[in-house]
């Protein structure tokens, strides 16, 4: 059984946290399929990749990046605050001659629990400074505060997928531990320069996966700490957050273009192996969504009106499964992702959008 919120949309192979597979077999990888093995792996001078476990999750692991600076350590993301993760983080730090007390700061790419919660837990022990994008504040406030309803329930109605809600609700086994969702020490707003002792990072706002998502570019070293914005073998889920946003796909594509305008940096993703070209993968993701928008438009032309109806006409995962063959969690994600594609088509004028009794319906102009 899973708990809410999951570490981000994650589940079946090929369509996890993130979405369905869209990788090119020609994309060069620095590391291979063993990227989830625990340890500390040097990826650049003074930079180490530390994979931490995600049990009961199709993603299997999250990469935390440890940056050595003159005043100690800066970590990009913190991992999920679970018993399995902390010893492996401490062991990895020990391999490179450090301990938890050497962590001066966390730069968290976004608020999903596999990135944020362990940063908060470590801060309670050693006083590390935690930074997070301001766009994630509404979602953080909602998760951390008192809650009597599921913030996702209304979204099932919007997508015409309320029949899936009961199975989704059954996945919830425990409420989140509010201690893991305490406020950060600082909010990132806009694009800012983060000066470390001996290194500088460009913090680039990249809304889409969540509204507060950030990537961190080290131009001098040629590195892009990409979080879940650009992943090497799966597509990031769009708008999977507690606070609903109508146009996260528009935001995501704009963010891809923004990062594509940077130099072609090495891609250091939160899930998957390090790869040599961020531009190559961004181009693949843009091409994927262009094709998905065309397929979603064709689904409406073929008679689908709600997002869930359209999702059932589209293939899912690298195995091209039907939406009805997915588990409850992934079926819901399929409905939500299709809704975001249809919403963007309506915004562009390719579809007509109407809403009746809380359900959005789409039709050809």
Automatic annotation (TrEMBL):
Specify the domain of life of the species encoding this protein. Answer: Bacteria
Outline the segment boundaries, as ranges, of region: Disordered. Answer: 1-20
| Keywords tagged on the record | Hydrolase
Which GO molecular function annotations are given, in alphabetical order? hydrolase activity
The Metallo-beta-lactamase domain covers 61-271
Q: Where is the composition biased (Low complexity)?
A: 10-20
Q: Which PANTHER family match?
A: ENDORIBONUCLEASE LACTB2, METALLO-BETA-LACTAMASE SUPERFAMILY POTEIN
Q: What is this protein called?
A: MBL fold metallo-hydrolase
């Amino acid at each position: 059984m899973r708990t809410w919120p999951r570490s981000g949309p994650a589940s079946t192979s090929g369509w996890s946290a993130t979405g369905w597979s869209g990788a090119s077999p020609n994309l060069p990888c620095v590391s291979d399929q063993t990227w989830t093995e625990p340890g500390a792996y040097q990826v650049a001078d003074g930079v180490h990749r530390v994979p931490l476990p995600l049990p009961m999750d199709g993603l299997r692991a999250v990469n935390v990046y440890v940056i050595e600076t003159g005043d100690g350590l800066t970590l990009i993301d913190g991992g999920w605050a679970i018993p399995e993760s902390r010893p492996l983080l401490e062991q990895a730090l020990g391999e490179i001659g450090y301990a938890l007390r050497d962590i001066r700061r966390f730069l968290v790419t976004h608020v999903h629990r596999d990135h944020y919660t362990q940063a908060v837990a470590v801060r309670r022990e050693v006083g590390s400074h935690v930074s997070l994008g301001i766009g994630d504040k509404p979602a953080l406030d909602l998760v951390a505060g008192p809650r009597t309803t599921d913030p996702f329930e209304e979204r099932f109605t919007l997508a015409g997928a309320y029949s899936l809600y009961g199975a989704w609700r059954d996945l919830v086994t425990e409420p989140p531990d509010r201690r893991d969702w305490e406020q950060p020490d600082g909010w990132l707003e806009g694009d800012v320069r983060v000066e470390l002792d001996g290194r500088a990072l460009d913090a680039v706002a990249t809304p889409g996966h969540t509204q507060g998502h950030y990537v961190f570019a080290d131009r001098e070293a040629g590195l892009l700490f990409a979080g879940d914005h650009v992943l090497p073998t799966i597509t990031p889920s769009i708008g999977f957050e507690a606070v609903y946003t109508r146009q996260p796909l528009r935001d995501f594509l704009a963010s891809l273009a923004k990062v594509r305008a940077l130099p072609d940096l090495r891609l250091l993703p939160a899930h998957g192996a390090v790869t040599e070209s961020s531009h190559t993968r961004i181009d693949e993701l843009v091409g994927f969504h262009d094709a998905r928008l065309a397929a979603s438009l064709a689904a409406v032309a073929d008679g689908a009106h709600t997002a869930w109806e359209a999702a059932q006409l589209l293939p899912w995962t690298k195995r091209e499964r039907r939406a009805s063959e997915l588990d409850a969690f992934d079926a819901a994600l399929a409905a939500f992702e299709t809704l975001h594609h249809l919403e963007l088509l309506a915004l562009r004028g390719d579809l007509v959008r109407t809403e009746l009794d809380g359900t959005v319906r789409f039709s050809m102009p």
